[in-house]
């Protein structure tokens, strides 16, 4: 069995990834900001839970001290943020930038000594980097930064592979599934496939990036071709 660490694995797509790997028989460690929730969710799926707050990067090394070996690392933790230039919230911006760029990097820095040459990393970005919307000032910037982060990590850590997955609108995710039907239908109509991405599509994409040994340093969009229109 390979050791799998899913950062941000207590809810949504991160949880779906952790559950899929646990069901496959892998040794899974999942993290979440709340210790009780991380432990509870982990026990439900047969994993081990760790409390980890990416926005507090100086505490990451100690939080991950008990992780012994890492075959696959998935950095799936996200924080919803709505920020504009005209009404700029510096504190909110710093929180998200620290979480995804500094926090992600510190997790990799901490766990690299416990990886092997066959290990692989997947980092979550998002398609706001290609199609920003009002309020996406920080989100679009940070997700674009994921591209640079993945390329430098893939270069520095070779032969360990590092890739990014950039989901579009995931229609059955907890965030989007409660949106009005007309809102989702509007987005669905903007895709050539006539359908939105599903959580299982993203899980499958992550699995592909982790397992395919010829894929390295890439940005994989999972959006039903949304950017073609």
UniProtKB/TrEMBL annotation:
Residues that span the membrane, as ranges: none
InterPro entries: NAD(P)-bd_dom_sf, SDR_DHRS6-like, SDR_fam
Keywords: Oxidoreductase
Organism listed in the record: Streptomyces tauricus
Family of this protein: Belongs to the short-chain dehydrogenases/reductases (SDR) family.
Name of the protein: SDR family oxidoreductase
UniProt lineage: Bacteria, Bacillati, Actinomycetota, Actinomycetes, Kitasatosporales
Transit peptide listed as a keyword: no
Pfam families hit by this protein: adh_short_C2
Domain of life: Bacteria
């Amino acid at each position: 069995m390979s050791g799998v660490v899913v950062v941000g694995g207590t809810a949504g797509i991160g949880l779906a990834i952790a559950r899929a790997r646990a069901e496959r028989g892998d040794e899974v460690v999942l993290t979440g900001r709340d210790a009780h929730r991380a432990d509870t969710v982990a026990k439900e799926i047969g994993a081990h839970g760790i409390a980890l707050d990416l926005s507090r990067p100086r505490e990451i090394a100690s939080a991950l001290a008990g992780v012994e070996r890492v075959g696959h690392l998935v950095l799936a933790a996200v924080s919803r943020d709505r920020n504009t230039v005209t009404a700029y919230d510096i504190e909110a911006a710093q929180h998200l930038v620290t979480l995804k760029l500094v926090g992600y990097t510190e997790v990799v820095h901490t766990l690299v000594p416990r990886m092997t040459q066959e290990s692989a990393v997947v980092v979550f970005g998002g398609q706001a980097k290609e199609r920003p919307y009002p309020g996406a000032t920080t989100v679009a910037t940070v997700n674009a930064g994921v591209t640079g982060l993945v390329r430098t990590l893939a270069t520095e850590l070779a032969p360990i592979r590092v890739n990014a997955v950039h989901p579009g609108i995931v229609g059955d995710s907890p965030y989007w599934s409660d949106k009005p039907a007309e809102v989702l239908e509007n987005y669905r109509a903007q895709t050539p496939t006539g359908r939105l991405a599903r959580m299982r599509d993203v899980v499958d994409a992550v699995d592909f990036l982790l397992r395919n040994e010829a894929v390295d340093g890439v940005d994989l969009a999972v959006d039903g071709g949304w950017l073609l229109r």
